[in-house]
Amino acid sequence: MATPKSRPRDGYPGRALAFILVVTVGLVALMFGTGHTTPRLGIDLAGGTSITLTAKSDDPAAINKSNMDTAVNIIQKRVNAFGVSEAEVQTQGSDTIIVNIPNKDGGNEKAIKDVGQTAKLYFRPVLAVAPTGALTQPTADPSASGTPSAAATPSAGSSAAPPPSATPSASASPSATKAGRAVTDALKADPTATPSAAASGTPSAQPSAPSAADLSAALTQGTVPAELQQQFAALDCSVPAQRVDQQGTDLTKPTVACSYDAEQGGIWYKFALGPVAVNGDTISKATATYDTQQGAGWQVQLQFNSTGADAFSAITGQLATQPSPANQFAVVLDGKVVSHPYVQGAIPGGSAVISGSFTQQEAKALADVLSFGALPLTFQMSDVTTVSPQLGGDQLTAGLIAGAIGMLLVVLYSLVYYRGLGVVSILGLLVSAALTYAIMSLLGAGIGFALNLPAVCGAIVAIGITADSFIVYFERIRDEVRDGAPLRPAVQRAWPRARRTILVSDFVSFLCAAVLYFVSVGKVQGFAFTLGLTTALDVVVIFFFTKPLITLLARTKFFAEGHPWSGLDPKRLGARPPVRGRRRTSATAAKEV
């Protein structure tokens, strides 16, 4: 009966070696299979503008995750409004927002100026509204089943998808037109509020679209002040240069504004608006909810503080008695109309609902706009960095050259000093480089990781960390050979002590990278992330590639007999010949352990 083979003293190194090679090939294949064959470059390498915003507030509790997430959402939409693609807006730490804007034609001056400004949110009564470029004749919607008056009803706000060339409002809001029929959103009392918040009076009927005669009458009969008529007539919202905040500093004066509706064929509307009736900072809460009781679908619930509740009650009572479009309330953010629901009746108590044909996304977008108006935060630009594409390319080239020089020096040192063992270190560096490159490329597509210049520096430093791990193990093996041990036992005896040293060294490096990542902001985090990633990969490479490969090489004649070019020649290392017949002492046994 055959006895089972015992496990070799040096294990099964081929299994570990096959594992790391399969993982490496798999990651590289995934990189090419997904098409993400290059790491995503940061602003300092690709060119663009990086803005660091620090939140400030008199109330420390106001700087919380909820408010910061809302600010990120609004700032993201502001950046998109500048016609920028692939912009990044993300929080770092508890009070910092990083905005990375790639280079675009015309520069990023407007983005630098506007992106960190506190939103100006106001409620203004609507005096007149018309499709842009036409003062008295609204544009008919061909999908409106042949009813011009219905088709001419303007949207309840700007669309969530403005055209690329436009500079739309800073946030999306729901459109009024659904499947070719006009539905105007309603601003009414919140049915879930206390009885004191119930609407008083008889709600007005749903307004119809303003006809040409209605618009003309509004301009000529005094609804629109005379000084505003010329400004309203000249406004053409289809021209990007005219879509600017025209409110000025005096909020008691009427103004004009624009709104965009993509669902009615991409129509821009212009508005004549009355003085500010309610300030946006009086909103205490705005949330998107789904009405399951009355079947109204998605809606936005509003709550005002005491100051806003009084002003809101007074103005809604006045608007409810007016004909269309003067019974509408425009929500104006940064000079752009994002919603203009009609008022059903006076709404006391400071609690109201905006309902209509909202989708969940549209309701959430409008709630974010209203929440940002109440956000008790201001943002200070703590850092602004602008890099031209040429400078970014030069910096990337310099970083790659520095990395190549560092790699070349390590390779030359390894070959000259360690000879055959140097080839092992070179192969290990190549495996580490392949893993690092593939992971960075995939992380760029997966989590938006961008390789910036400090991250490149971290990768260069990692070359030295990886080479240091090889050197620790090689020197332990050479020490054993100097003491007269054959190569295979020397490899096994050297590993426990080398492993402990390598793990301690890598742990210190990883701990430093982790601390640096969590306490720093901006580009320094790129350095910390890359340093931590490459340090972790160093442990993987040394355990699953270097150790198994050396174990296999120790079984070959070239290394086992100490060929002069193996790097393990006993004569070159000054090895002591073993003393035959000498009794092992306790000190010798302990040393071997």
Q: Can you give the helix content as a percent range?
A: 40-55%
Overall form: elongated
Helix/strand-derived class? alpha+beta
Overall number of domains: 3
The main pleated sheet reads as: 6 strands, antiparallel
The radius of gyration over CA amounts to: 35 Å
Q: What's the layout of helices and strands?
A:
Layout: H1 13-34, H2 43-46, E1 48-56, H3 65-81, E2 88-92, E3 96-102, H4 109-114, E4 121-131, H5 148-151, E5 177-178, E6 181-182, E7 186-189, H6 212-220, H7 226-234, E8 255-261, E9 267-273, E10 278-279, E11 283-291, E12 297-304, H8 306-319, E13 329-333, E14 336-339, E15 342-343, E16 351-358, H9 360-374, E17 378-387, H10 389-418, H11 420-446, H12 453-482, H13 487-519, H14 524-553, H15 557-560, H16 570-573, H17 586-592
Parallel strand pairs: 7-15
Antiparallel strand pairs: 1-3, 1-17, 2-3, 4-9, 4-10, 4-13, 5-6, 7-16, 8-9, 11-12, 12-16, 13-14
Helix pairs in contact: 1-11, 1-14, 3-9, 10-11, 10-12, 11-12, 11-14, 12-13, 12-14, 13-14
